[in-house]
Amino acid sequence: MAEVAPIGGLDGAVAVVTGGASGIGAACCGLLEASGASVVVVDRAGEPAVDVTDRAALDRLAAGLGQVDVLINAAGVLTENKPVDELSAEDFRRNFEVNVLGIVSCCQAFASLLRASRGAVVNVASQAALVSLPQQAAYTASKGAVAALTRSLAIDWADRGVRVNAVAPGFTVTPMTEAFFENETFTRAATGRIPLGRLLRADEIAAAIVFLASPLASAITGVVLPVDGGWTAGEPALPW
Ligand SMILES: NC(=O)c1ccc[n+]([C@@H]2O[C@H](COP(=O)([O-])OP(=O)(O)OC[C@H]3O[C@@H](n4cnc5c(N)ncnc54)[C@H](O)[C@@H]3O)[C@@H](O)[C@H]2O)c1
């Protein structure tokens, strides 16, 4: 993993990171700590385990914290690859329950602390919020909802000084995706479609997330920032 310099303005901050036990969330925790922040992990695989769909547990956690400056919503789930006609209502329900309602619950649970600190929220959407991810209609729809929710939260909370943004990562090597990348044919096709010509690292996504959470982004709210190696900008250059 490449060295990432600490991000300024976060010394002494308290950050809550959902999905912080793995992948992109864990990379955020590392960068936040390197930047002088203290981190509270909210993860069903954490110690203690906290599920973002358990509003009562989130409220108990919030009640025990005196300060929250940053909330990063990185917890997320993906379904098995299936065409849309084979997806069940339960597939959609699960994606929306964790990926969308999980963010709503965390934002609500930590709202008063974020208002008190005039803090910042960063939601992890996906490039699938902007262009379709084949065979993943439930996930894609949930990530589109995360992008829309980010704009709604940004507008509703702007007058309280709380900024809300999202990142839309492209194909990033994490435990969520490593099984895909064991398939060489898939990896070659995906890499060939990425204008930068390579898969992304969790620390590269974390750098954009922690930047948006930091005072360096003090004028930015309501954006959904693609961090995708150029995938949503267009196809790789043609050999003219
Ligand atoms: N890896 C990629 O290519 C990629 C691309 C676009 C977006 N994303 C998004 O990035 C975020 C992080 O994914 P990742 O790739 O780091 O995956 P990951 O599987 O490594 O990490 C996800 C974490 O979320 C936690 N989690 C899942 N459901 C939870 C719940 N109900 N309550 C609490 N914690 C829960 C898991 O325990 C895990 O630690 C997700 O929202 C994902 O959709 C990932």
What does this structure look like?
The structure is a single chain. With 240 residues, the protein is of the alpha/beta class. Helix 2 packs parallel to helix 3 and helix 3 runs parallel beside helix 4 (137-158). The protein has one domain (14-226): Rossmann fold, CATH 3.40.50. Helices cover 41% and strands 14% of the residues. The radius of gyration is 17 Å and the shape is globular. The protein has helices at residues 23-34, 55-63, 89-117, 137-158, 178-181, 184-193, 202-213, and strands at residues 14-18, 38-42, 70-73, 120-124, 163-169, 172-173, 200-201, 224-227.
Task: Write the topology of this structure.
Layout: E1 14-18, H1 23-34, E2 38-42, H2 55-63, E3 70-73, H3 89-117, E4 120-124, H4 137-158, E5 163-169, E6 172-173, H5 178-181, H6 184-193, E7 200-201, H7 202-213, E8 224-227
Parallel strand pairs: 1-2, 1-3, 3-4, 4-5, 5-8, 6-7
Helix pairs in contact: 1-7, 2-3, 3-4
The structure holds nicotinamide-adenine-dinucleotide (NAD).
